[in-house]
Design a protein that fits this description.
Blueprint (H helix, E strand, L loop, with lengths): L7 H4 E5 L12 E4 L6 E3 L4 E9 L9 H4 L2 E9 L3 E6 L7 H13 L1
Parallel strand pairs: 2-5
Antiparallel strand pairs: 1-6, 2-3, 4-5, 4-6
Amino acid sequence: MSYKKVKLSEICTIEKGATGITKAVAGDYPMVTMAEERITHNEYQFDTKAVLIPLVSSSGHGHASMKRIHYQEGKFAVGSILCALVPKNEDVVNARFLYNYLVDERCG
């Protein structure tokens, strides 16, 4: 079986997070940052399933937080130093599968 290579932008919408971490106002919605634990925010940016990845380079820094990839679903906010990969069609690519694939590729 042969597979066609595709760009992430062909199968996912890529959107930058909108909330600066220091500007977050505690609230009802999880907010994904580079930290392992979520903080909260009073507004949400997304209502979907997504993979969240840092926009800053982790080369040479050695900090685990800069290499951390997150999965989130439902209503949530995203810090401005991350971007969300949202599948355009869940029948083509599943967000949880994409998360697992990217984590495995990063470690392997």
